[in-house]
Specification:
With 119 residues, the chain is mainly alpha-helical. Helix content is 79%, strand content 0%.
């Protein structure tokens, strides 16, 4: 297999890695807790690595070379600069809508509330 063909396959695998990233991006973005971010990023790295190895074995790619890494990073970058923006926008909308519904349900007991007063 020629080097240019392997590079394009790695770019495509990188784009598919962006889809895997979005699977882990949504819970990470909606919850916004630091520990969940770490767990989601760690799981993404594991899944993306496993996906690359599975693809490399199935497609019969030669041993890993530096341009494989460049192709994966380029594909991931292309995905993040294109389709990911749509997903991030939609998850932001979902977060805002969910957050506003939660705020509406919570009763607010401030200074002016009648809570605790007996008359």
């Amino acid at each position: 297999m020629s080097g240019s063909r392997v590079f394009l396959i790695c770019v495509f695998i990188g784009v598919l890695g962006g889809v895997i990233y979005d699977v882990f991006f949504l819970p990470r973005d909606l919850c916004r807790k630091k520990w969940l971010r770490f767990v989601c990023d760690f799981l993404f790295c594991l899944c993306f690595g496993a996906f690359y190895l599975f693809s490399a074995v199935c497609l019969g790619l030669p041993s890993i070379r530096f341009f494989h890494l460049l192709g994966l990073l380029l594909g991931l970058f292309l995905y993040l600069k294109s389709f990911h923006k749509i997903i991030a926008f939609l998850s932001g909308k979902l977060y805002n809508k969910t957050n506003s519904r939660v705020r509406k349900r919570k009763p607010r007991h401030g200074r002016g509330s009648q809570r605790g007063k007996t008359s």
